[in-house]
Write a structure and sequence with these properties.
With 151 residues, the chain is an alpha+beta fold. The protein has a single domain (13-150), classed as Winged helix-like DNA-binding domain superfamily/Winged helix DNA-binding domain (Arc Repressor Mutant, subunit A, Orthogonal Bundle). The chain has four helices and seven strands. It has a three-stranded mixed β-sheet with strand order 6-5-7, with no helix packed on it. α2 (47-54) crosses α3 (63-75). It is globular, with a radius of gyration of 20 Å.
Length: 151
């Protein structure tokens, strides 16, 4: 059976393409596995933590491949790279703008629920000669477990 003009046959998930600035990246099996790992609510792993989980499904994957693909996914906006969280970058499967908490003792990072943040007045930032496209905010402190251990 012939398909109508302009209609392409469906592609398996591994061959979906993702648009990036100045290039097109294929949605590979490895990227799909990375996204599945990051699709856990309120979890912000390092690349090494992702690597150890992904190796169970893709034993031949290298740590360099994990870093490279996490970078590609964060540049295209599919995931968020949290660089303010300490010496190691952490990754968030939730690309929508939201804030984070970081424990200064254990280094864990959590999402801040939207309803937990209230601003006394709207932010109005105007800097001549600069176009602001976004902002990041990381709250730092001590989690309940670490506070208990400190006492």
């Amino acid at each position: 059976m012939r398909l109508p003009i302009g209609v392409r046959p469906a592609r398996p998930k591994e061959y979906l393409f993702v648009k990036m600035p100045n290039s097109i990246q294929r949605m590979t099996r490895q990227r799909r596995i990375l996204l599945d790992v990051l699709d856990r609510k309120n979890w912000h792993p390092t690349a090494e933590e992702v690597y150890h989980i992904v190796r169970k499904q893709a034993p031949r994957i290298s740590l360099g491949t994990v870093y490279r693909n996490l970078d590609i996914l964060s540049r295209q906006g599919t995931i968020t790279k949290i660089e303010e969280a300490g010496t190691q970058r952490r990754y968030d499967g939730n690309p929508t703008p939201h804030y984070h908490l970081k424990c200064l003792d254990c280094g864990e990072v959590w999402d801040v629920p939207d309803e937990a943040v209230t601003w006394q007045r709207p932010l109005d930032v105007a800097i001549p000669g600069f176009t602001i496209t976004g902002h990041r905010l990381l709250f730092e402190g001590y989690c309940a477990r670490c506070m208990e251990e400190r006492q």
